[in-house]
Design brief:
With 520 residues, the chain is mainly alpha-helical. It is built from 23 helices and no strands.
C-alpha cells in the first residue's frame, strides 16, 4: 500500500473518530424527535380521532403563530452562533495565527450550518406571506418544521465543532493536512504553479509562528505539537521528493533573507530548500526555548536525530549534512546561553546520531568528532566544566561503538581527537578535563590499546599527588559523577564501566599513586 493511500485511510479514520460523538448526538436527537412526534400524534388521534395537519383541526391563526414562534427561535439561534464566532474567532486568531480566519470561513461544516440557518429564516419570511395572503398552510408548516428541526439538532454538533476548531492543536493538524494535500497534488499530477508553493510557505510560516508564540506563553502542549507537525511533514516529503517536478526544487531569494547568492545557488543545486526551511523553523524553536522549556529543547534535538535517520535510510547525504549542521547550531546556542542541561541533552542525541554514521559515512563521522572537540574547547572557555567532562564521556562511548564495529581508522581518529584536547584551561575546567582523560585512559587500558595509552600518559604525569588522591576517591571510591543532573541519558551516574576499574587502578600505580589495599 502506498504511503499516500495509507495516509488517506488514516485521515478518514481520524475524521470519523473526531466526529463520532457529534454523530451520535445528532442521531439521538433525530430519534428523540420522532419519538415525541409519534407520541404527540397518538395523543392527538386519541383526542380528535384524526391524523396530521391535513385533518383540518389546526386553524389558520394557530399555524401563523407557530411559524412566528419558530422564526424567533431561529433568529435567536443564529444570533448565538454569530456571537460565539465574533468572540472566539478574533481572540484565537490574535493569540496564534490570522490563518485561522481563512481556514474557518472555508470550512464546509461551518458554511453548511450558517447556510442552513439562513435558509430556515428566509423560508420563514416566505411562510409569513404564504399564511397571511395565499392561505397555504400545510406545506409551508411542514417545511418550516423540518428546517427548524435540522437547524437545532445540528446546532449541538456545530458548537462542539467550533470548540474543537479553536483548539490550537487542531489548527496545526489542519494546516499540516493542507500542506500535504498540496504536495501530493504536485507530486501526482506533476502540475506546478508558484501559487501552490506560496500557499505551502504561508502555512509553514503560520505553524512556525504558533510554535514560537506557544513557547513565549509556556504552552508546552502546543509547542510540542508544532514540532511533531514539522517532523511528520519531513517524513511525508521524504517519500514524495524523488517525484517532485524540477520547478519545485528551485526557490527564490526572498524565502531566505540574508543568505548569500552563492549559498542560495548551492541550496538550489542540492535540492534541499524545503528540508532547510523546516530545520530553520526547528532551530528558532530551539533557541527560543533555551532556559525556558527544557523538554522542548530535548524534543527538537530528538526530532533532528529522527530527520537524520530518515535521510540515512533514503541515502540522502545532503540532508544528513544538514542535520549535522543543525546539531552544531543547537550546541552553539546552548553554550552561548550557558544552558548546561540543554548541552547535555543535545550531546546525547548527537552521539546517538553519530553512531548511526559508523556504517554509513566515515567521513561524516570524522566531522562529527571534530565538531564535538570544538564545542568541548568552547565550553571550557565559557567556564562550563560539567560540559567538558560530559563531552569527553560521549566521545568515549562513541569510541567503544566504533571499536565494536571494527572501524579501526575512525577509532584511532577519535582517540587522537581526545588526546589533542588541551588541559591548560582555568582550574575548574582543567580538573574536569583531567578527570575525563583518566576515564579515557581506563578505556584504553580495558581495550589493551598500548599505543594511545602511551600517548595520553605524559598529560597525566604532571598531576600532583594530593590531586591524584582526590581523583582516586572520586572515581574509584565514591564512584559517581560530579554532574548529577537528570538528563536524557537517564542511566547510572557512574563514570566507569565495570571493566575499567582494574585498568584505572593500574594507571594510578603507573602515575606513582597506590592505596595499601590495592597493593595487598
Amino acid at each position: 500500500m502506498k504511503a499516500s493511500t495509507r495516509n488517506t485511510i488514516e485521515n478518514w479514520k481520524a475524521w470519523l473518530m473526531l466526529r463520532s460523538v457529534s454523530f451520535y448526538i445528532w442521531v439521538g436527537s433525530i430519534g428523540l424527535f420522532f419519538l415525541v412526534y409519534l407520541l404527540a400524534t397518538l395523543i392527538d388521534f386519541a383526542i380528535h380521532g384524526t391524523w396530521g395537519f391535513g385533518s383540518g383541526h389546526l386553524e389558520h391563526d394557530a399555524a401563523y403563530h407557530t411559524v412566528q414562534a419558530l422564526s424567533r427561535s431561529l433568529g435567536q439561534a443564529l444570533g448565538i452562533a454569530l456571537t460565539c464566532l465574533a468572540i472566539a474567532l478574533p481572540v484565537t486568531a490574535n493569540l496564534y495565527t490570522p490563518r485561522l480566519i481563512k481556514l474557518f470561513m472555508t470550512d464546509r461544516f461551518n458554511l453548511v450550518m450558517l447556510g442552513l440557518i439562513t435558509l430556515a429564516m428566509s423560508h420563514n419570511v416566505w411562510g409569513y406571506y404564504a399564511l397571511r395572503h395565499t392561505g397555504s398552510m400545510e406545506f409551508e408548516l411542514y417545511v418550516t418544521l423540518v428546517l427548524f428541526f435540522l437547524s437545532f439538532t445540528l446546532m449541538i454538533s456545530y458548537f462542539r465543532h467550533m470548540a474543537k476548531y479553536f483548539t490550537p492543536s487542531f489548527l496545526l493538524v489542519r494546516m499540516e493536512q493542507d500542506i500535504m494535500k498540496t504536495l501530493r497534488r504536485i507530486q501526482t499530477t506533476r502540475e506546478y504553479r508558484n501559487a501552490m508553493r506560496i500557499h505551502i510557505l504561508i502555512n509553514l510560516d503560520n505553524i512556525g509562528n504558533m510554535v514560537l508564540k506557544s513557547i513565549y506563553r509556556s504552552d508546552r502542549e502546543v509547542a510540542l505539537a508544532g514540532i511533531h507537525v514539522f517532523r511528520r511533514l519531513f517524513d511525508e516529503y521524504t517519500d514524495l521528493k524523488s517525484e517532485m517536478p524540477d520547478a519545485w526544487m528551485e526557490l527564490d531569494y526572498s524565502r531566505f533573507p540574508g543568505m548569500s547568492t552563492e549559498g542560495l545557488t548551492e541550496v538550489n543545486s542540492r535540492k534541499i530548500w524545503f528540508e532547510l526551511l523546516i530545520l530553520r523553523y526547528m532551530a528558532r524553536a530551539f533557541s527560543s526555548s533555551l532556559n525556558l522549556m527544557q523538554d522542548l529543547v530535548s524534543e527538537v534535538a530528538a526530532q533532528n536525530q529522527h530527520v537524520g535517520l530518515m535521510a540515512l535510510l533514503k541515502e540522502d547525504q545532503e540532508v544528513v549534512s544538514l542535520c549535522i549542521r543543525s546539531f552544531n547550531t543547537y550546541l552553539t546556542h546552548a553554550i552561548e546561553q550557558r544552558d548546561t542541561l540543554s548541552v547535555h541533552n543535545v550531546l546525547y542525541q548527537y552521539i546517538n546520531f553519530a553512531e548511526m554514521l559508523i556504517s554509513f559515512d566515515p567521513v561524516l563521522l570524522r566531522n562529527v568528532t571534530r565538531h564535538i572537540r570544538f564545542h568541548t574547547v568552547r565550553s571550557a572557555r565559557r567556564k562550563m566544566a560539567n560540559v567538558v567532562d560530559t563531552s569527553i564521556y560521549e566521545l568515549i562511548q562513541l569510541a567503544y561503538s566504533v571499536k565494536a564495529a571494527r572501524q579501526d581508522d575512525i577509532y584511532d581518529y577519535i582517540c587522537d581527537t581526545i588526546i589533542s584536547i588541551d588541559i591548560s584551561f582555568s582550574p575548574r575546567e582543567a580538573e574536569a578535563l583531567i578527570r575525563a582523560k583518566l576515564v579515557f585512559a581506563a578505556m584504553l587500558g580495558e581495550l589493551e590499546d598500548a599505543i594511545h595509552l602511551h600517548l595520553i600518559h605524559p598529560q597525566l604525569e604532571s598531576i600532583p599527588r594530593e590531586r591524584l588522591a582526590h581523583l582516586y576517591d572520586e572515581l574509584l571510591i565514591k564512584n559517581e559523577k560530579i554532574q548529577s543532573e537528570v538528563t536524557d541519558r537517564f542511566i547510572s551516574l557512574s563514570y566507569l564501566r565495570p571493566g575499567q576499574h582494574a585498568a584505572l587502578k593500574s594507571i594510578f600505580r603507573d602515575l606513582g599513586y597506590e592505596r595499601v589495599e590495592d597493593a595487598q
